[in-house]
Amino acid sequence: MLIAKAARLLNLLPPRLAFLILLFCEVGRLRGRRLLESGYQGHVAGLLAHDPDRSFSGSVTRYFPVEAAELLLRIGADREAHDVVAEYGLAARSPMLANMVVRSLFEQGELEKARRLVSNVTLRGCTEAECHLAFLKAMLDLIAGDEAGALESMSVACRGLPDYMRPHQNMASRPAGNYHPNPLDFTCGAAGRLFDLCNFTGQRVTHIGYGDLGVGLFARALAAQSELRAKAPPTVSADVDLLLQRLGIPLEQLRVIPEEWTTQIGHLGMLDILFRMRELGWWTGKPLIVLRPDFVANRAFFRLFEELADIVVIGETVTHALGEELLSLQRWYGMNFNVFRLPSGDVVPFQEAGALAMVEWEQEGRRHPMRDAYDRIYATDPKVQDDYRRMREAWGMKPDDWYVCLHIRDSSHYSEVDGTGQTHRNAPLETYLEAISNITRRGGWVIKLGGPNAPRLPPLDRAIDYAQSAFRSELMDICLIRNARAFIGTTSGLTNVAISLGIPSALVNCITTDPQLWNGDVRFALKPVRLADGTMLTQAQLTFSPWRWRVFDACVLSRNGAQPLNNTSDEILAVVEEVIDPASRAAGDVASQRLSQWKQQLPRPHYYGASRISAYYLEKYGSDFLLPQLAGRSAGRPGAIAAATR
After folding, report:
1. What is the pLDDT of residue 644?
2. Cis amide prior to 515 (ω within 30 degrees)
3. What is the CA radius of gyration of the chain?
4. How far apart are CA 53 and CA 610, in angstroms?
5. What is the spatial distance between Cα 607 and Cα 342, in angstroms, rounded to a whole number?
6. Which of 167-176, 352-361, 612-621, 635-644 is least confident?
C-alpha cells in the first residue's frame, strides 16, 4: 500500500525529479525500489506516448551511468537508455547491460542502431551475458548480410553456451536448457550453424514486423540444408543406424518431422496439410515424427497421424540421447517448418504453399484424411461414443439436436498482457451473443470451447460453456468439433482442427500475416485495421509489405499508428448465417459484386486457400477496404497493387 502511494506521488513530480529519486533508491539499494519502479512504468509509457523524445535522466547520470541506463530500461525509456549506453561507452564495460539494450532495440525494430552498438564490443564468450550478446550480434550480422561475421559470433555463443548448438527451426519446439551437444552438432559445420541461425533470426524479425526479411532467411536455411545434403552423408551412431534399419528408413530417404509440428494444436493442423502435400506428390521420402510426451498439444488429435508416419517418443520409445541425435539430423533431412519448395522450384512460406495445396486438393475432389482417421479410430469406439452420448444427455440435448462449436480467442490461455504480443487477436464474448441467439432460435445449440479460465458464457438457453464443464478433455474437444454442424472461430489453432475435420467454418476477428489453410467451406471476416486519421487499411495493404508484416504483433501495430478493431455483432452474425444457412450463403456468393474485385487485389489467388470473404463484410466496408482504381485487369498484377499500397 505504501509503495503504491509513493508511486502515485512520483507521477505528480516532474519526470527528471522522479527519475532522480528512483536513481538514488537504486544506488542505495533501498528495499521496495523495484516495486516503486514498476508502479512508475505506466506513467512513463503515457508520457512517451505523447512525447517520444522526452528525457528522464539528467546531469547526475555522469556519476552513475550504469545504474541510470539500467533504470531507464526498467521504466520503459529504452531509447534514452541506448543514448546513455552509447555516450558513456557502457556496452564494452557491461556485457549484461549491452545485452539488455541491444535486445530492447532489436524488439523495437531498431536493427541498425542495435548493430552499431554491439559492433565495437569484443566478445570472448567468457560469461553467459557475453554469449547471449554474441548470439544477438550473430543475428544482426546475418540481417545485414554479413554471413562470415554472423558465423564468427555464432561460434563464440556456441563455445560458451552449448544450448546454442541445439538444432533449431521454430521456438514452438519449447526446448529445455542444459543441452548436451552430440557429434552431429559439431560435424554439421558452418552450414549447420547457418541453418539454425537463419531459422531463429527469421522468426525474430517476423515477430517485430519485418517478415519480408524472415522469408529470405528461411529460404537461406533451406539452402544451407541443401548444402549439407550435397556433401557426404553424416555419420550416425550405431543406435540411430539400428533404429532406422528396424523402421525400414534408408538415411537418404529420412524426413525428420521435429517437435514444433506437434507442440501447438494449430501446428497439428499444419501437419495435416504437410501430409496432404505428400499425397499431391509435392515431396517424397519416409517421414519420422520425433516428439516429447509432455509437449504434444492434443494427444487424441495426434493419434490420427499414426498411420501416416513412423513416430518416436523421446524418453519412452527411444532414449533421450537417441532422440536428440534424430533431431540433430533435421539439419540434413528435416521437413522445414517455415518454408516449402514447390514442385516449380520456388521457395515460399509454408503457409502459402499450404494454401495452394488446399486449393489443388479441393479441385481434385479429395476427402478429409483426418476426418476419415477420426471415424476409423473413434467413431467405432464404444466408450468414446458412450461418453459423448452421456455428455449430450447431461446438457439436455436430444439425439437429433444439432449444435455449433464456438471458440473465441482470449488472453487467459497464454496469460497475455493487453496491448502486447498477440492480444490484438483477441475479441470480447459480448459481440458473439447475437449470433448465438440466432443459432438457438433456429433450433440449434452452441457449445463454447476453450480453456477453463476463459470468459464465461452468460446463462443462455441451449448454450453450453463446455470449457467450464467436467466433461472437458482433449478427446472430447476433438469429438465435439467432429460432430458439429459448423464451427465459429478465428485465426487460432482450433480453427485448423475444424478445417482438418472438414467442418464448415465461420471465422471472424481474423488478423494474420500468413496465407490461410482454409477450404471452400470457410467464410470469414477480417478485423478492420484503422490508422490514426481513421483510414482503413485495404485488403491489398494487409497482404503486401510493409503492412502485411506489421499485423503480427500488437506493439508493432501501435508503433506504426494502427489499431485493429473487433468485428461488430452484425458482422459476426452475417458470417455465421453465410455458413449455417445454405440459402444465405448461396445468395451472398452470387450477389456480391465486389467479390471478383476483392480476388484481384490479393497477391495470390489462393492467399486465403479455397475460402471466401464474407459478402456482407465486403458490402459494409467495400468503399474503404477495396481499391476501386484497381478494378481493371491490372489489379491482378502484384506490382500494380504493391505500388498502390505504399
Report:
1. 57
2. no
3. 27
4. 47
5. 15
6. 635-644
